[in-house]
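User: Um, what's this?
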Amino acid sequence: MIFQLPIHSSDKVTDVYMNKLNTEGFIVAIPEIHWSVFLPAHGSKESHFQHILQSLMFQLFEGNAESLAKDIVKLLERQFFKK
């Protein structure tokens, strides 16, 4: 699945790719910044956020990594953790 999220500023967006790997977990990728992360399916919202944030802070030199991590977790919840 491909989504678009603001990155660096509110007037620029980037593609965010999310793939569910059967029952193992998820891969989230942002090709524009050469970033991807694996998230286990059994992780909590907070553990996913922390894992994404730590990974983004290592990769992202511009922009707000915390805001982007929150937006990615929201996308995950809407698409894969619907109640």
